[in-house]
Specification:
405 residues; alpha+beta; 3 domains; five-stranded antiparallel sheet; 40% helix; binds fe (ii) ion; DUF3391; HDIG_dom; phosphoric diester hydrolase activity; DUF3391 domain-containing protein; HD_GYP_dom
Amino acid sequence: MLAKRIPVQDLRPGMYIHKLGGSWLKHPFLRGSFLLTDPADIRAIMEAGIREVWIKSTAGCPRPEGRSEAPPDAPEAPALTGMSPPVETCDSTSPMASEVARAKDICLSAKGQIVEMFNEARLGKAIDPNATLPLVDEIASSIERHPIALLSVARLKTHDDYTYLHSVAVCALMLSLARQLRLSEEHTRLAGIGGLMHDLGKAAMPLDVLNKPGKLTDAEFEIMKGHPAAGAELLRAGGAAPEVQEIALYHHEKMNGQGYPHGLAGNEIPLLARMGAICDVYDAVTSQRAYKEPWNPAGAMRQMASWDGHFDKVLFNAFVKSVGIYPVGSLVRLASQRLAVVTEPGQDSLLRPTVRVFFSLLDNEPIPMHLLDLGAPCCEDSIIGPEDENRWHFRHLDDMCLWLK
Ligand SMILES: [Fe+2]
């Protein structure tokens, strides 16, 4: 399709600008080609002194973004103390946004149930694992409707919410992984129940150690190492399936035999427990804790992939497929030297999710936020890699990834 040159007076929203006349350094747009959607942009083009533009047909062509010719070694921006909140409003009609609302309700009702379960366990009462089935089914249905919404909500836990939302998150991650592995209905459900109850044994741990805000001493850590066996015993007493007991008992084992409580290695560790180890660690490291900042989800994926001997590699690869190389909520650096947050997994490629672009590294300042589908055929931008969010201290990344006000 050849570009057609027209005077700026003939520009209308909906036209695809292929090139702006004059030097791009002088105009206010990040790149010279883009889909014209805002009449204010026409005024800005005129005010920049541009007289002519080249346009192309927009048929079937999503908005291209980014400036892929940007130098990869652009100067580092200094840490910021914060930035403006998102300017876009919540699109309650998007599948993600509507499921996020339902997922919040599920997490809220889960809180009561899980807190009660832990309280009863603390009192020495037997826990009936079947009582959690409706909740596990609700979590499974949410994942069925949208694979990422509930995970995105459960990831945003505060220190106070950690125990119960960690249970919900591990349950959801286990269900996603079980689906990815095409496990039977029965085993998928057992994986979900085991995910929800994997840390039940913490109810048997001394409260001063369990609730200690800082890092544990070696002696305290030795005490906490008792929680897998304590949890498995509580579940056995309540009549839980052996697979659910095994998730509780073995979720801290490692493939190289250096885990606990029994130092099992490789396939000595039951399948669902090997899955539990991956889901438990991923949610723990990407969550805010009293003694540490959360890891960027994409950075966590990289780190975990580099831990030789810790996880079952085949299962870990399936886990990456179920959650994404750049999971929702990841802060990423684009080839156009902009920062963005991942909002939806890629449809066709794990490397090309949809992102919300919000910061220019070249100008070292926020830019108007907008969504960018990196998998769109006409998109010229791409992800260079995960960005360490602790270096930046942006305050609204989570709102951005959930597309909330
Ligand atoms: Fe644990």
